[in-house]
Every structure is written in C-alpha cells, then in structure tokens.
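My main concern about presentation is that the manuscript never shows what a single data entry looks like. In essence, backbone conformation is discretised, so a fold becomes a row of integers matching the chain in length. An entry of this sort, consisting of the sequence and the corresponding backbone structure tokens, reads as follows:
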Amino acid sequence: MKPETWAPHVTVAAVVECDGRFLLVEEHTPAGLRLNQPAGHLEAGETLTQAVVRETLEETAQAFAPEALVGVYMTHFSRPETVDGPADGVTYLRFTYCGSTEGLPTAGRALDPDIVRTVWMSADELRACPERHRTPLVMQCIDDYLAGRRFPLDFVQTHSVGPSR
C-alpha cells in the first residue's frame, strides 16, 4: 500500500471593518454554530486573492476588495483515534487579507449552505465570546489587524508554470 502524501489545507479569510465593527459569518460546524471571518479553501487554478474575493462573496453576498495581507497562520488540529481509523490530524495554512466591501449584499444572492447569517461585531464583543469562535485564529486575525499588521498584496507571488518538457 502506498503511503498517503501529507499536504496542508490552504485557506483564505477576509477581515472587513466598518465603523469599528467586523464582518463575520455565523456558520454550521461539527461543533455547532460558530463565528468566523468569511473564509474557505483555495481552489485549483486560483490565486490567493481570487480565492478570498470568491469566498467572501459566497459567504456574505458582498463583493470584497482586498487591500493588504494581514498575516499567514498555520494551525494543526489533532483528531483522536476512533473506530473508523487511527489518530491523525489536519494542518491548515491560512492567508488572511483585509479590505473593504460595498456594504450591501448582492440582491438575490444566496449564502453558502453552511452559513446561517452575517453579523457585524466589535472587537470587544467578539473577544467576549471565545467559545463561539470557529478557531482561535478568528480573534488572532482581528488583533493582528488592529495592531496594524499589513503586507502588500504582492508579498505573495503567484507564478504559473506550463507543462513540463
């Protein structure tokens, strides 16, 4: 049997602030309803900025314009052994961008099926309910944003490579 190749899950997230409040989504997770930034997985053929624009639109029905990279975060979640298989884990590599939205959802656009609603919360309101966060990265990304962490969009380069010769 060929061993599995390990690969991290690459995700993107959007930090959107308006008048001291942050755009969040309330979503269904295996642990119940949780709060998260608009976020999701990088898909084949996308750049990271294309992915964060797409994910924000899918989860909030709002067009997102990335302005800067806030940070890159790596998290490993361990999973205990179960009757279905041995103990294992999953690693996520998250690229978080900040930017702006048009402010109003696109009329008639449905949210992703796991998204219950969008909410706007202050950092203090969010800090007061850590048990509702999808992961500790929700607050970490807000704190890094508030601390002024910004990297230019071209900090991460995308290079397309044609077929090998």
